[in-house]
Design brief:
Layout: E1 3-7, H1 17-25, E2 28-34, H2 36-41, H3 44-60, E3 65-69, H4 72-83, E4 88-90, H5 96-109, E5 114-116, H6 139-149, H7 190-202, H8 208-211, H9 224-229, H10 234-239, H11 246-267, H12 289-300, H13 306-318, H14 323-336, H15 341-351, H16 357-368, H17 383-390, H18 395-400, H19 428-440
Parallel strand pairs: 1-2, 1-4, 2-3, 4-5
Helix pairs in contact: 4-5, 6-11, 11-16, 13-14, 14-16, 15-16
Pfam families: DNA_photolyase, FAD_binding_7
Cofactor: FAD
Domain Photolyase/cryptochrome alpha/beta: 1-122
Length: 446
């Protein structure tokens, strides 16, 4: 009997366990449902990457990918009935919205099983636990157990794994993949992901442990958007890593962080938009006209702090932001401007190509001090010192802040500010003191 393979965050054919499971049932129809609710909440760059990935997946399937728009709980049962599907196969989604959606689809399918095989993670949420079965709240012990739990080798699947049903003969309303017309600085699709990963392993990986924090160097893999949409699986990445190599160990640690934050969101779904540590709910934040002006200046990269402004302009212009710079600009918003982390997290999700609810929200909460681990609420990044350390020559600043390209000192530690570049919108020393006062006024508890 035929089977339906419903693609979501797994837009590839290699290393795809759900594809292998579907192919064992018989002929396979490949489909993607463009959910209007997710479409409306996605930034234009994410929609562009999604659309580009779907077009390339369709090419890899020789035009046999059915893309349709509608509510999955309506579309999937209808398509399954039209082909007489024995089952609907998916990679499991652990995010709050995905979990609710899949429960609705499973109920609407009735006697047709919704079969979950694999997930977007090396170690799926819920598998790494303490001895008593409770979840980890701190990353380092999670990391140790994560290594012990381990993961499988990449699944041996590809375009040749199934006999694909041509959807052209089905009475289903098609739609074109999204195409907002945005130019991206990263190429979508499985072939691009595999090529970029090989280039990284052959080149920058051996320097990753030293270079990953340097904003002025191309020391990262740029796999984040590919992992977000599943054009490559983290198993494929891990399979090429030698744990004896410091760069490989550092990269595996970042993959573990990705799994950790997915696990945190799965265990505490309300933490998508609320403080994971409710002890910080009473923290004082700024409102009013001045607060809005400062938020707008932060978004536009007009704070008068060169390293912050470089990051915010890179984000606005490309939809990507170096991870170290993400932490610095987040700390600045929360602890120098005293604005809620949710506002910054929302802006990131609107702008980022790789915007992922688990990584984004919990990364922001780490910076705000209200997330997991020993909450570093007392850690306030000095934006000038961070720039000096991770962009020592100022090349990153010069690239993204043209007003400072001719400056002898792009960090502006001394000398006059170039004409046209704003003065600092706040005094970092004073705001650091104020931030600590506000944090110490609440009594965090976990």
């Amino acid at each position: 009997m035929p089977a339906l393979l419903w693609f979501r965050r797994d837009l590839r054919l290699n290393d795809h366990p759900a594809l292998g499971a579907a192919a064992r049932d018989g002929d396979v129809l490949a489909c993607f449902v463009l959910d209007p609710r997710l479409e409306a909440s996605s930034g234009r760059r994410r929609l562009q990457f999604l659309g580009d990935s779907l077009r390339r997946l369709n090419d890899d399937l020789d035009g046999r990918l059915l893309v349709t728009r509608g509510r999955p709980e309506e579309r999937i049962p209808r398509i399954a009935a039209q082909i007489g599907a024995s089952a609907v196969h998916i990679s499991r989604d652990f995010a709050p919205y995905g979990t609710r959606r899949d429960e609705k689809v499973g109920a609407a399918l009735g006697s047709v099983p919704l079969v979950e095989t694999g997930s977007p993670y090396l170690v799926s949420p819920g598998r790494v636990t303490k001895r008593d079965g409770s979840p980890y709240r701190v990353f380092t012990p999670f990391l140790r157990q994560w290594h012990d739990v381990g993961w499988r080798a990449p699944a041996k699947t590809g375009a040749e794994s199934a006999r694909w049903i041509d959807p052209a003969r089905l009475p289903v309303e098609w739609c074109e993949p999204p195409d907002p017309g945005v130019t991206l600085d990263v190429t979508a699709g499985e072939a691009a992901a595999l090529g970029a990963w090989k280039s990284f392993v052959d080149g920058e990986l051996h320097r990753y442990a030293e270079d990953r924090n340097r904003a002025d160097r191309s020391g990262t893999s740029r796999m984040s958007a590919h992992l977000k949409f599943g054009t490559i699986h983290p198993r494929t990445l891990a399979a090429g890593l030698d744990p004896r190599d410091p760069g490989a160990r550092a990269y595996l640690r970042e993959l573990a962080f990705r799994d950790f934050y997915a696990d945190v969101l799965h265990r505490w779904p309300a933490s998508a938009w609320r403080n994971w540590n409710a002890g910080f709910d009473a923290i004082q934040t700024d409102t009013g006209v001045l607060a809005e002006r400062r938020f707008d200046a932060w978004k536009a990269g007009q704070t008068g702090y060169p390293f912050v402004d470089a990051g915010m302009r890179q984000l606005r212009e490309t939809g990507f932001l170096h991870n170290r710079v993400r932490m610095v600009v987040a700390s600045f918003l929360v602890k120098d401007l005293h604005l809620p982390w949710q506002r910054g997290a929302g802006w990131f999700l609107d702008q980022l190509v790789d915007g992922d609810i688990a990584n984004n929200q919990h990364g922001w909460q780490w910076c705000a001090g209200c997330g997991t681990d020993a909450a570093p609420y007392f850690r306030v990044f000095n934006p000038t010192a961070q720039g000096e350390k991770f962009d020592p020559s100022g090349d990153y600043i010069r690239r993204w802040v043209p007003e400072l390209r001719a400056a002898d000192d792009p960090h502006l530690r001394e000398g006059q500010r170039p004409h046209g570049y704003p003065a600092p919108i706040v005094d970092h020393g004073a705001e650091r003191t104020e931030a600590l006062r506000r944090y110490q006024a609440v009594s965090p508890s976990s």
